[in-house]
Design a protein that fits this description.
Number of domains: 1
Structural class: alpha+beta
CATH class: Alpha Beta
Helix content: 25-40%
Oligomer: single chain
Order of helices and strands: HEHEEHHE
Number of strands: 4
Radius of gyration: 15 Å
CATH architecture: 2-Layer Sandwich
Strand order of the largest sheet: 2-3-1-4
């Protein structure tokens, strides 16, 4: 998981550099999902379809949805998750608005039965 977090931080740093105002403290929200049925392509597809609905939330500046890449097997690489989302917000208030948004709440209600575990990394620009 450490490498996933480092990769996210690298991607995030690049994206954060595009914020137009230096006083903005951008927020990166990276979420990893493990399915209850890890081998189920159908459940993974349902989760990804649910994640796609989150793109409608206006406070999200950028969003990436992905699955583990077929990169080199190394001890520091954790590719045991089924899917992840990486979101960029301008500030803490926007990230909070996302959490409370009805679209996000519907995603949780519709898809939480699919996952066994969720890990969240929230990062603030320094």
């Amino acid at each position: 998981m450490a490498t996933s977090a480092l990769l996210a931080a690298g991607v995030a740093a690049t994206a954060l550099s595009s914020f137009s105002e230096p006083e903005k403290k951008g927020i990166i929200h990276h979420v990893f999902f493990w399915l209850k049925n890890p081998g189920s392509k159908e459940d993974q597809d349902k989760l990804i379809a649910g994640l796609q609905t989150l793109r409608k939330i206006k406070v999200i500046k950028k969003m990436y949805i992905g699955v583990p890449a077929s990169t080199e097997k190394r001890d520091v690489v954790d590719n045991s998750y089924a899917a992840s989302e990486l979101m960029f917000f301008d500030n803490l208030a926007d990230q909070k608005a996302y959490q409370d948004d009805p679209i996000h709440q519907k995603f949780i209600a519709d898809c939480s039965h699919l996952w066994e575990k969720v890990v969240v990394y929230d990062v603030q620009d320094v």
